[in-house]
């Protein structure tokens, strides 16, 4: 069984990825390799941040490693929060007064700000994008997954994490340009299996699995 480190301590992400990769891979978290420090994310793109984290772990701990960075990109907000999705609430913007009191990675505060910024906006189109960077045998690779959908006006469901309660995805062929059907549930109203079948992370990870199975 091949061992890979997933550069995260996010229990939700780790559970999703272990489910996707199945029984063919032993997936370790950062805590499993005793990596306790905060990983660097110093860039302005998902591609650069995910690669930076993978390189950091691979160089310091010696494991083949993959890392992801995910962003929610909302059309009416000019693509925000994007690369800053996990700490969106901490960013000071006009109309948002709670930035100083919000901690990084506060999902509830992030959703509260997102819904406030959108207000009564009719165009609620958005997409989730995940970029997975893999370092294996000294070589680097990247895999991208995207799912399109809309931002709801209020939270629905208690599953998932992050922005899942306010994101309703399209059921679509990822190779086609036009979405097919807007589903009637948010990610937070789906089982983990249902979400993984259509999610941005699921699509990126399936590309990773396909690559690993051939190499």
What would you say this structure looks like, in words?
With 215 residues, the chain is α+β, with helices and mostly antiparallel strands. The chain contains 5 helices and 8 strands, in the order βαβαββαββββαα. Strands 1, 2, 3, 4, 5, 6, 7 and 8 form an 8-stranded mixed β-sheet that branches. β3 (65-74) and β4 (81-82) form a beta hairpin. α1 packs across α5 and α4 crosses α5. The radius of gyration is 17 Å and the shape is globular. It starts with a strand and ends with a helix. The model has no long low-confidence stretch (mean pLDDT 91).
How would you sum up this structure in a few lines?
This protein has five helices and eight strands; from the N terminus they run βαβαββαββββαα.
The computed structural class is alpha+beta
Mean pLDDT: 91
Instruction: Kindly estimate the percentage of residues that lie in beta strands according to DSSP.
Output: 15-25%
In the predicted model, the low-confidence regions spanning at least 5 consecutive residues are none
The sequence of SSEs as H and E is: EHEHEEHEEEEHH
Count of separate DSSP helical elements: 5
Give the C-alpha Rg: 17 Å
Quantity of strands, as a count: 8
Outline type:
globular
Largest sheet: 8 strands, mixed
Helical content stands at 25-40%
Distance between the termini: 14 Å
